[in-house]
From TrEMBL:
Keyword Signal among record annotations: yes
Gene3D superfamilies per the UniProt record, alphabetical: Outer membrane efflux proteins (OEP)
Cellular localisation: Cell membrane
Family: Belongs to the outer membrane factor (OMF) (TC 1.B.17) family.
Keyword Transmembrane: yes
Bilayer disposition of the protein: Lipid-anchor
Keywords recorded for this protein, A-Z: Lipoprotein, Membrane, Palmitate, Signal, Transmembrane, Transmembrane beta strand
Main location: membrane
Name under which the protein is recorded: TolC family protein
InterPro entries: MdtP/NodT-like, OMP_efflux
Leader sequence residues: 1-19
């Protein structure tokens, strides 16, 4: 009874003395609107459906199921969940069994035996266990957010590589068209040379332009292979053995729905890397609580149950129950404990700075994507106009050259300008499609955060957990 009374007094004293550290989650300063704000339209929860490309939908679905980085993140999430369960179990009494048997050889041989139970309970009077649970819960939440962030990044990477694969395909098609056009010009120039109407220099110039165009084939093939191999890795396939199936739609994928950027503050609840940084900040706050707990007394209550009187025959004859209280009172450590608290606070300051930096980076990614979307839309319109004018100029130059009214230099120049404009339009259309991918990756609009993680973590994550659901 004296032990119990002493233990309860320390529980009371420790409970009054301990104040669990509460972390203030300052919302980073965010402008009310983005600097470039395009008119919103229907934002699909699954943003890549906005390209209306079944092949892309299939590739991303496969990637989200088979990608190895996502699998690794899922395994880390399971590990964090198991560690959280382990930390919570420390709040319960721990009981272990003991037993031994032997033979006493002195005098008459006698078989000896002993058995018993050993128990330990930590009432957590200084709050250390609670802080450790909060730290593990924050780790669990962070692992869940990082798994969702892998899905965000993998979906964006697959879409980007698919666009590059389609871009290289369009470049190859344009290469064939350009080669045919320049071969026709070379035939015309050769005929005129054979008829004495053109110099051999003109033949050489036309042949050089054709060779220059054909030389691009290898570079396009490299880009196409790079994109196919990158897609293979993202889908957990062996590079060199995979190529996307042919699409029923021609040209570069066109995004048809959006964007709907919302407001900058939305990033705080949609970007999974920001949420992961927030969980890491909560973990740092819990670490402060762990170190602060070491400044106050701690209490553990061990108990024993011994069975028998030491002989084999009397194994179940006697029972002995023991209960104690083990108290650890910090007195002097040369300042070590307070230094560890100061270190934990400094780590929390670093995590806060990282949290703000990640938010600013995300904000910059959205702004850059919005500017790029606007710029490439204008560029595509201008390039389409340039192609239309270039086709007219080439047609006129061809007619004039056949009549001997203009030089080959003018014809080749018109031809080069048209080919360059067509190449630039393909690249610009691919860049526009990639900008939409970058935008949706930046705003975190795939809705892949697992709510179960937050519910599991809420028991020890801290006050902020309910705000993250």
């Amino acid at each position: 009874m004296r032990i119990a009374a002493l233990a309860m007094s320390f529980v009371f004293i420790g409970g009054c003395a301990h104040v669990a550290p509460e972390l203030d989650f300052p919302v980073p300063d965010a402008p009310p609107l983005y600097a470039t704000n395009l008119p919103p339209s229907g934002l699909d929860e699954v943003w890549w459906h906005g390209f209306d490309d079944p092949v892309l939908d299939m590739l991303i679905a496969r990637g989200l199921d088979e990608n190895l980085a996502i699998d690794a993140a899922a395994a880390r999430l399971r590990a964090a969940g198991a560690l959280l369960a382990a930390e919570r179990s420390d709040r319960l009494p721990q009981v272990d069994g003991t037993g031994d048997a032997g033979v006493a050889l002195a005098g008459d041989s006698e078989v000896t035996a002993a058995a018993g139970l050993f128990g330990l309970f930590n009432p957590d009077v200084n709050g250390r266990l609670a802080a450790e649970i909060r730290a593990a819960a924050a780790d669990y939440a962070q692992a869940g957010y990082l798994q969702a962030d892998e899905r965000r990044l993998v979906a964006a990477a697959i879409a980007s590589q698919y666009i590059e694969y389609r871009r290289s395909g369009e470049q190859l098609a344009l290469l064939e068209q350009s080669t045919d056009l320049q071969e026709q010009t070379l035939r015309i120039v050769t005929l005129r040379f054979e008829a004495g109407l053109a110099a051999n220099l003109d033949v050489r110039r036309a042949a050089a332009d054709l060779a220059q165009t054909q030389a691009r084939r290898g570079l396009i093939a490299i880009a196409r292979a790079d994109a196919a191999n990158a897609l293979a890795v993202l889908l957990a396939q062996a590079p060199g053995t995979f190529a996307p199936p042919a699409s029923q739609t021609a040209g570069i994928p066109v995004y048809l729905r959006g964007p709907a950027p919302g407001v900058p503050a939305d990033l705080l609840r949609r970007r999974t890397d920001i949420l992961a940084a927030e969980a890491q900040l909560a973990r740092a706050a819990a670490e402060i609580g762990i170190e602060r707990a070491d400044l106050t007394p701690s209490l553990t209550i061990p108990g024993t149950l011994s069975i028998g009187n030491g002989t084999f025959g009397g194994l179940f004859s006697d029972f002995l129950i023991g209960l104690a209280a083990a108290i650890d009172i910090p007195i002097f450590d040369g300042g070590r404990r307070r230094a560890e608290v100061a270190a934990a606070r400094a780590v929390a300051d670093a995590r806060l700075a990282e949290y703000r930096a990640i938010f600013l980076d995300a904000l910059g990614e959205v702004e850059n994507a919005l500017v790029a979307i606007d710029a490439y839309q204008q560029r595509n319109a201008a390039l389409a106009q340039a192609i239309e004018e270039g086709e007219t100029a080439l047609s006129q130059s061809n007619a004039l050259y056949r009549e001997g009214l203009t030089s080959l230099f003018d014809l080749l120049d018109a031809q080069r300008q048209l080919i360059a404009s067509r190449q630039s339009l393909i690249d610009s259309e691919a860049a526009l499609a990639s900008s939409f991918v970058a935008f949706h990756a930046a705003v975190g609009s795939d809705g892949q955060v697992n709510a179960t993680i937050l519910q599991e973590a809420a028991g020890g994550y801290g006050a902020r957990a309910t705000l993250l659901q």
